[in-house]
Design a protein that fits this description.
- Pfam families: DUF3159.
- It comes from Micromonospora narathiwatensis.
- This is Intracellular septation protein A.
- Keywords: Membrane, Transmembrane, Transmembrane helix.
- It is a single chain.
- The protein is an all-alpha fold.
- It has two domains: about 70 residues; about 130 residues, no CATH class.
- It is about 75% helix and about 0% strand.
- It is built from nine helices and no strands.
- Helix 2 crosses helix 7.
- It is elongated.
- The two termini are about 35 Å apart.
């Protein structure tokens, strides 16, 4: 009895797997809670109120993530980002500057993903390959390397879209609008990127390809021609 090729499995099953590999819904919502708390605190008690609410929310999220077994390093980085954002806002006296770290992060992420595609180490492949324990084996599969490169452009687009929306709001000091945009462009946008990037990968792989978990070995010459 032959097994069903990865390409023929239900799209929903593979999309959910890809979502888990890339962080999933929980990570996206975790990132929005401190921002929402900041806006509520800012509206209720000014800048200091917003900062206190954001830090408390960040600490609560960090504690929850530790309890569910997340890596301490990842948790501390998330909490540190909230604290740095709060310090920047206090330093400048502008509530909108609480979101400056996020703007810089999205700009850096867009650049990093673009560079990774150009140097033929698309980050989508790096992330998924690392989680699947493949290290660099996926790069020896020309079709998979090409598919990951095309799928990575979808993620570049998400970071650029956020910048297009966030930068004008930040320049205008629109704190509430920034929070609304952050929520709208976090999990919903991540979900859309997961679906679209998986569709791009699926359509880029040739018929009969064994799928993400089973890269097909190929010669270095073939791999060098994949884009």
């Amino acid at each position: 009895m032959t097994s069903t090729p990865e390409r023929e499995r239900p799209t929903r099953e593979r999309s959910e797997s890809l979502a888990e590999l890339l962080g999933g819904r929980r990570g996206a919502w975790d990132a929005t809670l401190p921002a929402v708390a900041f806006a509520v605190g800012w509206l209720a008690a000014g800048l200091w109120g917003g900062v206190a609410a954001a830090v408390l929310a960040g600490a609560a999220v960090a504690g929850w993530r530790l309890r569910r077994g997340d890596r301490p390093r990842s948790v501390l980085i998330g909490l540190l980002a909230v604290c740095v954002a709060a310090l920047i806002a206090l330093r400048t006296g502008r509530a909108g500057d609480f979101f400056l770290v996020q703007l810089l992060s999205n700009a850096a992420s867009a650049l990093a993903w673009m560079v990774s595609i150009v140097v033929r180490w698309p980050l989508l492949g790096v992330v998924v390959g690392t989680v699947l324990g493949q290290r660099g084996r996926w790069r020896r599969d020309p079709a998979l390397l090409r598919a990951y490169g095309r799928g990575s452009w979808v993620w570049v687009a998400t970071y650029l879209l956020r910048l297009v929306v966030f930068v004008p709001l930040w320049l205008g000091g629109q704190v509430v609008a920034l929070v609304v945009a952050r929520v709208a462009l976090t999990w919903p946008l991540v979900a859309a990127a997961l679906a679209v990037s998986w569709l791009v990968i699926r359509r880029s792989l040739p018929a009969g390809h064994p799928g993400l978990r089973h890269p097909s070995p190929a010669s270095d010459a073939d791999g060098g021609r994949a884009n």
